[in-house]
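PROTOCOL LOG
Step 1. Enter all chains and additional molecules of the complex.
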Amino acid sequence: MSTITEEVIDSASIAAASTKRRPLWQVAIRNPSVIIGGTILLIMVLIAALAPFLGTVDPTRIDPAARNKKPGTEITFRLDDGQTAKRVAIMGTDSLGRDVYSRVIYGTRVSLAVGIAVALIAVAIGTVIGLISGYIRWADGIIMRIMDGLMAIPGILLAIALVSIWRTGLITVIFAIVVPDVPRVVRLVRSIVLTVREEPYVEGAISVGTPTWVLMFRHILPNTIAPLIVQGTFLAAAAILVEAALSFLGIGIPPEIPSWGNIMAEGRTLFRVFPHNILYPGIFLALTVLAINIMGDGLRDTLDPKMSKKV
Amino acid sequence: MLDFIVRRLIAIVPVLTVVAVFVFLMLRLTPGDPAAVIAGDNATSDQIDDIRAKLGLNEPLWTQFAIWISSILQGDFGESYFFKKTVAELIAQRVEPTLALATCTLIFAVSVSVPVGVLAAYRQGSMFDRVVMGFSVLGFSVPGFVIGYCLIYVFAIELGWLPVQGYTRIGVNFWGFLERMVLPSLTLSVGFIALISRITRASVLEVLNEDYIRTARAKGLSNRVVLMRHALRNAAVPILTVIGLGIAILIGGAVITESVFGLPGLGRLTVEAVLSRDFPTIQTVILMFSVVYVVINLLIDISYTLFDPRIRY
Amino acid sequence: MSATGVKPVLEVRDLTVSLPAGADRPHAVEKVSFTVNPGEIVCLVGESGSGKSVIAFTVMGLLAKALKPTSGEILLEGENVLAANEDRLRELRCTRMSMIFQEPMTALNPVMSCGEQIDEVLSTHTQLDAGERRAKILAILGRVKLPEPERIYASYPHQLSGGQRQRIMIAMALVLDPVLLIADEPTTALDVTTQAEILKLIAELQAGQGTGVLFITHDFGVVAEIAHRVAVLRWGQLVEMGPTEQILSRPGHGYTKMLISSVPSITPQHRGVRKDGITVLRTEKLGKTYSGKAFFQKARVVKAAIDVDLDIRKGETLGIVGESGSGKSTVARCIARLIDPTEGKVFLGDTEIATMSVGKLRPHRRKVQIVFQDPYRSMNPRITVGEFIIEGPMNFGLRKEEALARARKLMETVRLDPNSLDRYPHQFSGGQRQRICIARALAMEPELLIADEAVSALDVSVQKQVLELLDEIRQRLNLAVLFITHDLRVAAQICDYVAVMSKGRVVEYGSAEQVFGAPRDDYTKALFAAAPGRHWEFGKFATA
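Step 2. Run joint prediction.
Step 3. Record the structure below.
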């Protein structure tokens, strides 16, 4: 009777038993998907931050003399001080003579800003509403009806509707993408709250007289962090795609701002002759979103294994 | 059974009410006089007054809503001053390409993604599985318009096998219709296939871990029977659910795909309406797409009873 | 040990099954040998982690991929199934060897009718035509004593009770008269009365057909009830094997002795009943009605507890026993005010708390503490044991140092190392966690301690220790204890008074000796009559 033996050795729990407990984030950053996706994303962040130093020129400068040049053409730039300089436009120029390379590099800023902003704002708003909904009975009915209603409008369409209400601009676009995302976060947080509050350890905390707000922050909220990081990652990826789509359709960010969607929108008319205007921003866009999605998959597998069974 | 359907029907009333309120409020949230916004830039003040009277804009907000919703329910969606037609006419004109595109995509995407997903689950961890999962992440990440232009470039411009853009009505020339549907449907399918193959794989994998699958194996059934008869039928409900939810992606994707391929459908109409700030059209299109989306999901809900006896009643 | 002249149906020789790298031991099963003869029921007994289920799955060839049989032989009527290929194994399953599982609720495919599921066995393994198959299925449904075979044939699993589903499983397993039936804890998930019926059915069918049965269980009551021979396992090794009577009364190995003597006796101890204690808790016509409100749906009303009158005095343990769905946990949760009672009163001392508002209730929360069933979900995995224990006292204004000092003392009380307060829950075993939960409850200096199936998830040896600890604490602190359990043996050992609940009502209520010794209510009588191994006095070993 010396030792207590309760190691469960049925075949199902072997895997769980064999992994040593380590903080989740440590497991996450060792996941190959997270490493690959994270590295590409880091490069993109660096490109965005260092855009002026990467051999770019002013991405908004119009040069009638250098319109529609194919990639690799050498063109003469007029600089601010009136001097001229020759350089090779490695991605060509668009129909207004703007340097596509510079526009693509600067476009990284817009896309990353939209992705990060949308994810953060949607998660923040959604978490607050989700907590309220999961914890306050009478509010739950009303909130969830509204959320169901919002979810009934296909996401991009809702964003288009919102963009049409206000003047176009970066803030409008971000907000228009946030609104359709909020119900998804609310549902996630609410379902976690509803599940966790039934857990014996939460009931135990209630019975030792723990006040509701402590209950919420100490015992319930920490359970939402990992799923929210995962969800936020996927929201960021989707947001970047939606922004590009809106701009591509001409109803997103104002055309003078260099975003990937805008570059492609501009390249549509002459696509048959000059496909590079769509190809290069398209590659950057796909690569960025791919990186975030790969990272999201890795995060989900490590941080939120229950969810990875579902999706 | 009837009881179940009625309950489901009643359950969508609050959802559609929220949608209607939102769509109604859209116009009221726009800066400026709603009547002037509707009439457009070239309107006379008489026209604006007419609109104001018709919409009851001098009445309190809820009366305005009542007027609006009752005319909607009677099939009067208002008039597009930009297109100089009633919205109903406009939509009737534009519905065919969108319907055709959505149907072709749905049929193609489902018939590819479900078998692929099942096979990937069955051979979990194999080369095939990894390739499928890889393509699925890629499918989520490459935007539809990039795919569309790539397909146009390769198949229409370089190879010249298919027309670049445009639409031919089914009734006019069926072959021409098919020719012009191939690339748009393919484009729109990519994201949908990515989604459904992933969900199919995940659902089948989850079912394969269930106790009754172990029972089926203990009965001495072959792997194929276990998979097809026991696993797939149980995985059907989550797969159907996601196909239903995926309709939203299909609708959103249609807006983009129609723009890329110059299809004169509802998606293209939406963009044109937004660009010209034609609010009666925007409102109607959004309302209509939402109703379609909700009703399709309702039908899918009801169809669950065919797959799962527990859901009946 | 095998009877001479009879060829065993199953012969396991030196079986070793390896665990994947990184597990806490190299082998799930190590060099295990035993036989099952025709018409014989052999029980494999062991606590969790003993490898008993692994053996069952190895025989069927249904082992998870991570586990690999590395040596030994499994001979089914002389044929080595370890050497058989996948096709051959499929032919053998359900024709020569069959298996039934622990969870009847999930073991049947929810989207196929029961008849179809049995039919699959016949259409896979026989050439019978549809009519013959149907006749055969209806016959076996009758043999497992399911009423109205025709109706059952067309039913879906969710329309049947747990016991009925297990009968379907048995019908499916035995429809082709296999020589070997493997039963993996087939009654563990069932209520005690259903368990008794299923055990009886298995024994009857098996005796009739001369089927060899390999019966996996952790419950010595079941062993005493059904087994001809017993094999005791620990950590994947066979400790000892012999005829049931011998193992139960003259075990040769210390481990077996320890296990058997840990089984609580169903005869209550004589404990002096003191009528003089102060009443800590009294309920008056306590009731809880759940009504599922939904739009345009028939409101579903479930009366989980009806007119429950109970009282507990200081230093006393009141047990509530009953089967699942009897309402015993509902009563406990109403008293702890984790749910709000819909009728009646709950007096804590002189204070009525059933209708008290949540805000006013808070100071009274300290007085009632509860320990839950599942040791793995009772503790927040993110906070240390120390923080877990001091949370309550600090809610009531104790300073952190004082609370920690109290926590250290309590860790000693529950016999755990006081220096492990900064460790996290996953570093403790289930039994240890249950001790920690008790310590946390005691830290509140409660007047009433509720144990809601607090030992039900524990292995029998650990269960014994926790029960002893609980009883010792009750005596020392003169604590009132409300003990909720489905296990009659546990109730008999720890309770002064017992209330038997059925369908939301208390059907019998009295001192443990009276209720166990001379039950009056028909339901109580049926319940006790169904307790497996009730005729066996465990732990009274004959001197070797």
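Step 4. Note key features.
Chain B touches chain A through 57 residues (CB under 8 Å).
The mean pLDDT of chain B is 86.
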